[in-house]
Amino acid sequence: MSTRSKIIYTFTDEAPALATYSLLPIVEAFAASAGIAVETRDISLAGRILASFADQLDADKQTEDDLAKLADLATTPDANIIKLPNISASVPQLKGAIAELQAQGYNVPDFPEDPQSDAEKEARARYAKVLGSAVNPVLREGNSDRRAPAAVKAYARKHPHSMGKWSMASQSHADYMRGGDFFSSEQSITMPQAGEVRIEFVGKDGQVEVKKQLALQEGEVFDSMYMSCRKLRDFFEKTLQDCKETGVMWSLHVKATMMKVSHPIVFGHAVSVYYKDVFDKYGELFKELGVNPNNGISSVYDKIKALPASQQEEILQDIHACYSGRPEMAMVDSVKGITNLHIPSDVIVDASMPAMIRSSGQMWGKDGKLKDAKAVMPESTYARIYQEMINFCKTNGAFDPTTMGSVPNVGLMAQKAEEYGSHDKTFEMTADGTMRVVLADGTVLMQHQVEAGDIWRACQTKDAPIRDWVKLAVTRARQSNTPAIFWLDPERAHDRELQKKVETYLQEHDLSGLDIRMMGYNEAIRVSMERLIRGQDTISVTGNVLRDYLTDLFPIMELGTSAKMLSIVPLMAGGGMYETGAGGSAPKHVQQLIEENHLRWDSLGEFLALAVSLEETGIKTDNPKAKLLGKTLDAATGKLLDNDKSPSRKTGELDNRGSHFYLALYWAQELAAQNEDAELQAQFAPLAKTLADNEESIVAELAAVQGQPVDIGGYYRSNPQLTSQVMRPSPTFNGAIAALTA
Amino acid sequence: MSTRSKIIYTFTDEAPALATYSLLPIVEAFAASAGIAVETRDISLAGRILASFADQLDADKQTEDDLAKLADLATTPDANIIKLPNISASVPQLKGAIAELQAQGYNVPDFPEDPQSDAEKEARARYAKVLGSAVNPVLREGNSDRRAPAAVKAYARKHPHSMGKWSMASQSHADYMRGGDFFSSEQSITMPQAGEVRIEFVGKDGQVEVKKQLALQEGEVFDSMYMSCRKLRDFFEKTLQDCKETGVMWSLHVKATMMKVSHPIVFGHAVSVYYKDVFDKYGELFKELGVNPNNGISSVYDKIKALPASQQEEILQDIHACYSGRPEMAMVDSVKGITNLHIPSDVIVDASMPAMIRSSGQMWGKDGKLKDAKAVMPESTYARIYQEMINFCKTNGAFDPTTMGSVPNVGLMAQKAEEYGSHDKTFEMTADGTMRVVLADGTVLMQHQVEAGDIWRACQTKDAPIRDWVKLAVTRARQSNTPAIFWLDPERAHDRELQKKVETYLQEHDLSGLDIRMMGYNEAIRVSMERLIRGQDTISVTGNVLRDYLTDLFPIMELGTSAKMLSIVPLMAGGGMYETGAGGSAPKHVQQLIEENHLRWDSLGEFLALAVSLEETGIKTDNPKAKLLGKTLDAATGKLLDNDKSPSRKTGELDNRGSHFYLALYWAQELAAQNEDAELQAQFAPLAKTLADNEESIVAELAAVQGQPVDIGGYYRSNPQLTSQVMRPSPTFNGAIAALTA
């Protein structure tokens, strides 16, 4: 079997990982009929922790570094990877996983908050690589092509999800810094030739400290920018005062998981400004205790447990007293009293803002009611698109899924492009001075005056990915026969550099009959929305951050979820990666499974990705059976949508496992009904019959287990055997699948 | 003296007319030095009423029809007209003027509400021509070129007017019909050759009623459209319900004066929907009494005076009861309890919306406080630009007069273009049926299904004005070296016809180096605003309604008033008309003069217009003295602004008369200081000296009279002798001016 006849199916975390226990045996059985092996690679948070410390574990507990192997594979033409959503871990999540692994007998070190010894520093460095969005950047050796498949779009038009009504009198809005943020200070250059650069800090005393050395490629775009700590804190205070005056709820929206260095700091300032009185009063004590506002107000709750009860109570009272001087805050969980500032990973801007816009521009208040809110998003670079959409909804009402068009995306993503690769070039200033980027010969390319506390960062965007991105945009515009807009803001230094390259690389393509334009973000989103409400499609061709934001924002309006998007990464080396379920790894789903044995995760994204992956395999290895498997899987998926066999949110109704059964049934039926391949026809006709004949008993077996708590032996690393038993509760169904490969 | 050495100064109404009593003697004296005669023409409301009924008046009270004479003049190359603002009379204003004239012994007939006899019908027809905006359409034989003069813009940057802060949480917005309005039903054709058309109504029974016959020119654009009465009333009800729910004030913004046939009907529906319970209960009685909601709720108050006291009281109680079920309404005068629905002429959209936007998007509530409001503007065609600006201010804050750019306007206005000439082609349907536009040969050009109560109208736009407008736009873009945007909405039938013509006529000009674009209204205003806040200018090239709206909207943001705009009408026949004070005729100013003998009217617009008029005269008649008068007047105006000698709003401080004194002083000083013309130098040096020497005593004489009520013998037609005495209270100043021509 050629290596190309292998599909790599990633094993990740939470709901997608649970669903994998049910779906993978089906996929393996079907794929085997075309001679295709389906192998898993463990890139879960727990798996990555274990791989990082393999050298320190007992021999029987050591694992290979699957992520590193996948990263290598991604740079070869053989790659054919189904990539499921995984946890982008915040510090609290990481700590949770560590604790769980230690309890399971894995001898991994604690997360060192304040590393002192060499061993602690080493552990901290290894954990840093596990934190945040640590998987996608290393796998994404290609740009991104995301769109709503026709069957999904048709389903949404026929069965529209709920959309909260918008009032023209809504007070909701997105507020952002007007100066002092990354946008205002951005500088950008394009390297005329390859070269070494140093990132240096020059102190007031003239001392030079080299922060980082980098080898840049010819044609690489290199940006630097900083956020003023003082202005950021002023901004937070101003937004709080404003909310206090207007009675609008205050809500913070950052991306502390992905922007794992800069945004936790931003988040921390929000926490220490909101609870300013407490942080002022207990500054010294909190320092001693190791309180870190970057981990949320929960860090205070955690750390003060070390104090005597009376002192704890005093601090809690002072925290409580803060609320009277501050505006109401949006709640993550109003029942449990968990706000937006509790931990940094609860509210992630690209998911939280579409949710707010879908809910009439409102968020949950502490009384469990939806209310207008000020969405606070310090970085004006991207916040403006949300304000634009909010204004649009105030004026035109909520989007109508039954009539609206679509905004697919072609995103610049390869090789850690832009801010999403900036983590190792992000620094929190410890003193006033100058940050500068210097060539080996001493030429200063860029510099900023900074103050202690400011966040300075540099971003890289390599030339080859840009060129590939332009090609992908033109290809997509041609294949979809749809206008495409490059979102490039003429007021951004970085975008002006990109614009020159886009203009150059567009000349490499036949643009006849295509409608390809460049616009600033506000104009681009506005034009796209005006077209959207008129039922017209517009491809957004964007940088890496907007790719991430927009492929949640528009799908959530159009489809109710971003998990139903077809998300293809044509790898630059020739392989393919097929990402599924952009909606995240869904901790709430796991909770429901454990408490009620119902998994509402929708594997639609996996179905869609598998179909494309099978088709690609078929084309690349000249395997007609593989192509047919892909084609029939797509048809089965369409039928599943039409027959409304997607998982229900309600315990007792059809769940993830049930929808896998229907997928298998419809897929087998499609294969049995086709005439292109007699072998496959013969092989799947019996399965189709068995499944159809036993539909009632299988569905009953799947339903019977629901309603009771289950034990899967772990959250971050559940027990495989227990989980498999929970996720495959129908002996009839399991038997039918087993019979296929028997 | 050539006829070209004559400037026609219009005599109008209210504050501008009062100011004329003070300013004109100065102007006459200065102009005489260049051999230029300044003649007045009475186009006041009172003057037009008297002219309309000259044949019915006593011989000694007959006047000539100055407006008709001016209209003739405007079509000749000799025209040089200074046009001051005049009353666009609503029915209540017209009645007020009639009553005053009758009291002054003029035997003009009453305004027949419901004309029966032939005489009444004849009177009604004559009054119809006096109503509303009856002056501008007949004089405007050219397109419009309006901009902020450099001195005025510089002054505003240095001495910014107050701008209310905007909150991002503001609930204010502009609401408009989403279907059923003129926009949605508009049809438009361009006449391939000259031809007669009939506007006909075809009843359900097939009966054809010819409403109007028209001779259209070759290339003329002809539109037809209607507003659904049912949908309009539903819309009003919906907006009222919405305000009741959200707690936002309700406020109606129409243009019942200019759109004198269609908008009073729209206004009337607002009244009868808001007070629905009352109009339902007393429908029959109100009919008998002659109550007309189109005249406002004041019509009820007026008409029920004929009833017994007890019945009056019952009705008043029922009116009062309406308020409890309705949202709070924006007040015109909260002290007197006068709302937006009192009379149709109080709230005029193009003035009221900029005022609201300048005041933080708020209007006055019944408690005398500023509050957020829903600005209800049924016609979506133009309402959208206000919503766009409101969203923009919510997002970017109030405009900053010290840094903002400018939006001059080139407006299509000549020969009653577009809606502003539609009054004689506007019909309120009395039955269901079809309205259609038919060629002489029976070809149906356009048609609409209509219902009783619907408002149908047709608009004309002649080809020559469009061609001239394109030329004026290119000329202005070239002379100002400023980008120009044609505001043409691709979704409007009329604008699509215009767009074709613009494309054709642009080819007649050298466009090299010019930035001329076409955009829909939303995009055009958004781009203009984005440029504005970056200090950049953008010429708006618009149709007639937008011309009117934008030349209030932007100047009020930029300069605090539209009265300071330079407003030139290059007449198509070669003459020139110079309009002043687009801000209206200011009834409140008159009130202050009568009660406190202080006139706060700012004649700046007259100064600016006169300077251009004198310069044009100089060029056309090769009169260097005239040119010099113009140049020095401009310099004097700049000095007046610099020295802050504009009228104060506060009684006791420098008023209109005082600023005229300073203008005369500076103008004389400029003429005395120049070396181009020795004769003028010699003539004005003594005046400059006299005025400078007597500055203190003249200002004291002007101040001394303030603070007491005065009698000018009338409002619509004041007594000339009394008024002149009031407006020229300084013997020292009067003597100095008299000496000039002695």
UniProtKB/TrEMBL annotation, chains A, B:
<protein>
    <recommendedName>
        <fullName>Isocitrate dehydrogenase [NADP]</fullName>
        <ecNumber>1.1.1.42</ecNumber>
    </recommendedName>
</protein>
<dbReference type="InterPro" id="IPR004436">
    <property type="entry name" value="Isocitrate_DH_NADP_mono"/>
</dbReference>
<keyword id="KW-0816">Tricarboxylic acid cycle</keyword>
<dbReference type="GO" id="GO:0004450">
    <property type="term" value="F:isocitrate dehydrogenase (NADP+) activity"/>
</dbReference>
<dbReference type="Pfam" id="PF03971">
    <property type="entry name" value="IDH"/>
</dbReference>
<keyword id="KW-0329">Glyoxylate bypass</keyword>
<keyword id="KW-0460">Magnesium</keyword>
<keyword id="KW-0521">NADP</keyword>
<keyword id="KW-0479">Metal-binding</keyword>
<comment type="similarity">
    <text>Belongs to the monomeric-type IDH family.</text>
</comment>
<keyword id="KW-0560">Oxidoreductase</keyword>
